[in-house]
Specification:
The complex is a heterotrimer of chains A (158), B (634) and C (287).
Chain A (H helix, E strand, L loop, with lengths): L2 H4 L2 E6 L5 H8 L13 E3 L7 E5 L2 E2 L3 H10 L5 E5 H6 L9 E3 L9 E3 L6 H31 L9
Parallel strand pairs in A: 1-2, 1-3, 3-5, 5-7
Antiparallel strand pairs in A: 4-6
Chain B lengths: L2 H18 L3 H26 L5 E3 L6 H22 L3 H22 L8 E3 L1 H31 L7 H20 L3 H19 L5 H31 L8 H5 L3 H18 L7 H5 L5 H10 L2 H10 L1 H4 L3 H22 L4 H22 L2 H32 L10 H4 L1 H15 L4 H15 L3 H27 L14 H37 L7 H16 L3 H4 L5 E2 L14 E3 L5 E3 L8 H4 L1 H27 L1
Antiparallel strand pairs in B: 1-2, 4-5
Helix pairs in contact in B: 1-2, 1-6, 2-5, 3-4, 3-7, 4-8, 5-6, 5-12, 5-17, 5-22, 6-7, 7-8, 8-10, 10-13, 10-15, 12-17, 13-16, 15-16, 15-21, 15-26, 16-17, 16-21, 17-19, 17-20, 17-22, 19-21, 19-22, 20-21
Chain C lengths: L3 H29 L9 H11 L3 E2 L3 H22 L3 H21 L3 H32 L4 H6 L4 H4 L1 H14 L27 H25 L4 H21 L5 H30 L1
Helix pairs in contact in C: 1-3, 1-9, 1-10, 2-9, 3-4, 3-9, 4-5, 5-8, 5-11, 8-9, 8-11, 9-10
The complex binds iron/sulfur cluster.
Iron/sulfur cluster binds next to helix 2 and helix 4 of chain A.
Chain lengths: 158, 634, 287
């Protein structure tokens, strides 16, 4: 089924953004853009989220946090890097404390360029990510099936 | 009729025996054998009498009453001695008044008068006997190991275990006597015995606090004793031939004469059942070793108080005095439940919940319609089982983790899984749907609607009932929260304790399942014989509830479904990575610990404030009853 | 006395009705905020998605508590629609909610812990009023059985206006609507992450959501009982009551738990008890 595409719940994390992109992400929720039309909800909780939206680049303080949040999102999940900072480090790339875009740390599925990224492109990016989400779901299903057929007994990964 | 004297005298014999046994193995053996015999005796009595309804017996042994009188004087002398020694002059004063009344009664009236029937048994006595004979003895067996550990943990306390077990068994004997006596003079004797036993047991550790609390209990109970003696005096005054000294004769005499003594004895019952103005003695009593609390709270002492009030319930029906007694109970229920929210000490929570439930029982009995008496007896049964289980669980936990604070019980399900499950069942038994206490509360709501001024009680139950949900569930939540770094510490618990705990847990569940049977064989015939009509739950509801219990028992199996294939992640901590024992890097690189603590709402449900309100309210009510009573007497 | 057909109908239809109601609710809420809003079937999509997701837990026992939660919600709702004893239904619902709270406690997570405590506050805030409502219905119809109350010809609402107002008050709490959405909320706005539901993912969250639908249908059924003398008026009343809740939801901001508890109790005390007192008095006078 394709329920996933109809109800993607986001988690927005501000890594080290200048707040420009954050404002634009929030703008998506306003009546003008109203992402809830697509069933998108901005949850505040990784355990309920499907799409991890990150703004800003990785620095030493948030490195662990990004990884922790990413690990707490249940599969299938996608990561959308919003703004050039999140994509590559952007204008802060050369700073002593920035190690670059968040793909340095976790796999990123969609990059939304712009400084700041416009709400339209953010929405567009998220909609793009839904395709990938769906693919991942199918992969996950297949993996589960293989696991069932295979001799290896179940059990958590951790 | 040999069962009755056996049950009264045998525990006393065992007690005397235990007083002289210093050897531990021997003591263990004697206690266990005695417990077994008493348990067997009660079950035997149950099967002999459960169909026969009310039976009266005259005791062939003539000097029994005289012996009791002499013993009573000895008790009075002992209390006088201790009271003077410890400079507790209130106790001294009360015991002097009480003894004076008693000697007056004995010398002026009773010489030569004996009510024809001294002992009796009916279904209600049988229920009480089962509670004392089974739960009381189980607690005795548990106490063996507990006291051993207790003295190992507290080397500063003098080992007086011979006295301890002596008192325990005397207590049982006194309780049996109390519920089987038809003669009020006898009831009074046994009443005094329970007062004395509780005094000595509460003061067991001989610390300053323990002694003080023991005297507090003594004084309050003596106050009740004075009222009781007053009731005896009144009865003899009205009819010097002493025919109304028999409970049965009094209850069937038409209630005009019975009202004054019933209210006086009801007052005595209120002090013994630790209702509001007198609740502090029961809370203070928790300084005693835990088995003592378990005994006081579940099967003896406070149950004596509610027993006598339920006995006299038909007299209270529809009277102003009865309503006032009911209101004292109702307000106690409401306020004590509320206070329990603000307590984190597990034993204190249990104490306040006991007070609350006793209040509810008294509220039912005070209003005294047949449906309410039915509900009250059910409450007595369920409360006795679940409460004893809970106290013993808390006692065991306390010895293992060194604390009786609910906050320290967090993650008990990891550290002491079996105990935690039992505690869970015990707590569920106190307030959740298909279990006992809730059935009785439900029945009480239905019954109160139809009673006079019932709306007040319905409101009290609606609010009080939901308050109980609060403090029990947050306790439950504490014990079942799974802490990742817990260490298992329950392997050292001895097998006797396990035996007792398992049995009580099983009883908690089984009694819920078979309660329709208990109701139809014991409670309904009793209510029927007293009121000529009886209450019961509708068949549909019983079936549904049984289904719910089975469903509840099935649910844990669903855990098997999830045994594998589930991925575990740590709790969400705002994105911060945490170690397994929930430590995380705070700002400035400092490692911080996570600590979760329940809400206690001090400012709303604080003990001091509510206690003051309750004391004032209930004291006022009792005064009012006193004024009314004086009107009747004059 | 108990109708199995109704119970089965409830089992099958309640999630559909509950889901639809929730979908309409979201649409209307969006419109009130000047947004387009999600499709009406959005709640079904959400639940469908959650069921497809991976089940992450902090501890396995969470699964058990949530399963028990939904099972007992369904059982108690079925009992209600089958015409069972109203008080038993209420107690069974409390049992179910305790399971939800315990599930939150089990994870030992700060956010769900606070959520659990706040859920408990909500329970003690609404429960007295719900019991008083049942008592009120009993006083008018002389029965606690839902089928008998529903079959009564008497216009309950005229006897119990105060009780009904009190009930509407706690209705807001039960529906998890602002201003009383203390423990968890349906909205995007968050305060304590997601309160009780914080540590539940995928299928477990779906179960909580479905249980909530079942419960909402039960609550609507409770509203129906007040107007049971005339089904048409009853349906209209249900719709009006629900619309009112949506309006309140969108016009109030969340209050603190202190105010929730106090106001719920005061309204229960004032409206409910006074109403019942008058009935009680009248019954005494008439007899
Ligand atoms: S991309 Fe531009 S607007 Fe966005 S966070 Fe970076 S600097 Fe700010």
């Amino acid at each position: 089924m394709t329920y996933l595409k109809k109800s993607p719940w986001l988690l927005h994390y501000d890594a080290s953004s200048c707040n420009g992109c954050d404002i634009e992400v929030l703008a998506c929720l306003t009546p003008l853009y109203d992402v809830e039309r697509f069933g998108i909800i901005n949850t505040g909780n990784p355990k309920h989220a499907d799409v991890f939206v990150v703004t800003g680049g990785v620095n030493e303080q948030n490195r662990e946090v990004i990884r922790n949040i990413y690990e707490q999102i249940p599969e299938p999940k996608v990561v959308v890097a919003v703004g050039i900072c999140a994509s590559s480090g952007g204008i802060f790339r050369e700073c002593y404390n920035i190690s670059g875009g968040i793909d340095q740390l976790i796999p990123v599925d969609v990059y939304v360029p712009g400084c700041a990224a416009r709400p339209e492109s953010i929405i567009d990016g998220i909609v793009k990510s839904l395709e990938i989400l769906e693919e991942k779901r199918i992969q996950m299903k297949e993996r589960a099936k293989q696991k069932e057929q295979g001799s290896s007994p179940g059990g958590g990964e951790r | 009729m040999i069962e009755l004297p056996f049950l009264i005298i045998f525990p006393a014999i065992a007690a005397v025996l235990l007083l002289f046994i210093a050897n531990e193995t021997l003591r263990n053996a004697v206690v266990k054998i005695a417990a077994l015999l008493i348990g067997a005796g009660t079950i035997y009595a149950f099967f002999t009498y459960f169909q026969s309804g009310l039976q009266l017996f005259s005791v062939p042994f003539e000097p029994a009453s005289q012996i009791m009188f002499v013993l009573e004087l000895f008790i009075a002398l002992y209390i006088l001695y201790v009271g003077i020694q410890c400079r507790r002059y209130l106790a001294v004063l009360l015991i002097i008044i009480q003894s004076a009344l008693l000697i007056y009664v004995e010398s002026v009236f009773v010489m030569g008068i004996h009510p024809e029937f001294n002992l009796f048994i009916d279904q209600f006595s049988l229920i009480m006997a089962m509670i004392i004979g089974i739960i009381g003895t189980l607690i005795c067996v548990y106490a063996l190991r507990y006291m051993q550990t207790y003295h190992a943990h507290h080397p500063e306390i003098k080992d007086r275990r011979r006295l301890f077990f002596f008192m325990f068994f005397v207590f049982l004997s006194g309780m049996f006597g109390l519920i089987f006596s038809n003669n009020l003079l006898w009831v009074f004797f046994f009443w005094e015995i329970t007062t004395l036993c509780s005094f000595i047991l509460i003061g067991y550790s001989q610390t300053k606090e323990a002694t003080n609390n023991a005297f507090l209990a003594l004084e309050m109970n003596l106050l009740g004793g004075v009222a009781f003696a007053g009731a005896l005096l009144y009865l003899l005054y009205v009819d010097p031939s002493g025919q109304f000294l028999g409970i049965e004769q009094l209850l069937t005499s038409g209630y005009a004469i019975a009202l004054v003594p019933a209210v006086l004895i009801g007052f005595a019952g209120i002090t013994k059942a630790a209702l509001m103005p007198f609740s502090s003695w029961l809370v203070g009593a928790m300084v005693a070793p835990t088995p003592v609390s378990a005994l006081l709270h579940s099967s003896t002492m406070v149950k004596a108080g509610v027993y006598i009030i339920v006995r006299f319930a038909p007299v209270y029906t529809g009277t102003m005095e009865g309503l006032i007694i009911g209101l004292v109970g109702g307000f106690t229920f409401l306020l004590a439940s509320a206070i329990a929210i603000s307590q984190s000490n597990a034993k204190k929570v249990l104490a306040y919940s006991t007070i609350a439930n006793l209040g509810l029982i008294v509220a039912c009995a005070g209003v005294g319609t047949y449906k309410l008496v039915w509900a009250a007896i059910l409450l007595i049964i369920f409360h006795a089982i679940a409460k004893s289980l809970l106290f013993l669980c808390v006692g065991t936990v306390e010895h293992r983790i060194g604390s009786r604070d609910i906050e320290d019980m967090s993650g008990l399900i990891v550290r002491m899984p079996k105990i935690a499950v039992m505690m869970f069942i015990g707590i569920a038994g106190m307030f959740l749907a298909p279990f006992g206490m809730l059935i009785s509360k439900w029945a009480a709501i239905e019954a109160f609607i139809e009673a006079q001024f019932g709306l007040i009680f319905v409101a009290i139950l609606a609010f009080g009932g939901s308050i109980t949900v609060m403090f029990w569930s947050k306790w439950m939540g504490k014990i079942i929260s799974v802490i990742p770094s817990g260490e298992k510490v329950e392997d050292t618990v001895k097998k006797e304790k396990w035996f007792v705990l398992y049995l009580l847990t099983a009883l908690t569940v089984i009694v819920c399942l078979i309660f329709p049977l208990i109701s139809s064989t014991l409670i309904e015939p009793f209510v029927m014989s007293v009121y000529g009509q009886t209450a019961r739950l509708s068949q549909d509801n019983i079936v549904i509830m049984a289904m719910m219990i089975f469903l509840l028992m099935l649910m844990p199996f669903s855990l098997l479904l999830y045994r594998d294939g589930v991925k575990h992640v740590p709790a969400y901590m705002g994105g911060r990575p945490t170690t397994t024992d929930m430590r995380f890097q705070g700002s400035m690189g400092i490692t911080r610990e996570t600590e979760l603590s329940n809400y206690y709402f001090e400012e709303y449900f604080g003990e001091k404030r509510l206690l003051m309100a309750g004391t004032a309210l209930c004291f006022g009510l009792i005064l009012l009853a006193g004024v009314l009573l004086t009107g009747v007497v004059l | 006395m108990i109708s199995l057909t109704n119970a089965i109908l409830f089992l099958l239809l309640a999630p559909i009705i509950g889901g639809l109601v929730s979908g309409i609710d979201r649409k209307l809420t969006a419109r009130m905020q000047g947004r387009v809003g999600p499709p009406i079937f959005q709640p079904f999509y959400d639940v469908g998605k959650l069921l497809e997701k991976e089940n992450l837990v902090v501890t396995s026992s969470q699964n058990f508590y949530i399963l028990s939660y939904i099972v007992f919600i369904v059982v108690s709702g079925a009992l209600f629609f089958a015409g069972g004893d109203l008080l038993l239904v209420i107690f069974a619902f409390t049992l179910a909610h305790i399971f939800l709270v315990l599930g939150a406690y089990a994870s030992n997570s700060p956010y769900s812990f606070v959520g659990a405590e706040r859920e408990l506050i909500q329970i003690i805030a609404y429960e007295p009023m719900i019991i008083l409502s049942a008592v009120g219905m009993y006083m008018v119809t002389k029965s606690f059985f839902v089928n008998e109350i529903a079959a009564s010809e008497l216009p309950l609402i005229l006897y119990l206006p105060g009780v009904f107002i009190g009930f509407l008050m706690v209705f807001t709490i039960k529906l998890r609507k602002s201003p009383f959405d203390l423990s968890t909320s349906h909205h995007a706005h968050q305060e304590l992450v997601k309160g009780v539901t914080t540590e539940f993912t995928g299928p477990n969250l779906a179960r909580i959501e479905i249980a909530h639908w079942y419960e909402n249908v039960f609550l609507l059924g409770f509203v129906y009982l007040f107007f049971a003398f005339n089904p048409v008026i009853a349906i209209v009343a249900i719709i009006v009551a629900y619309l009112l809740e949506i309006l309140i939801d969108n016009t109030f901001s969340r209050v603190k738990w202190q105010l929730t508890l106090k106001s719920a109790w005061i309204v229960a005390g004032m409206m409910g008890l006074v109403n019942l007192g008058v009935l009680y008095y009248l019954a005494g006078v008439l007899i």
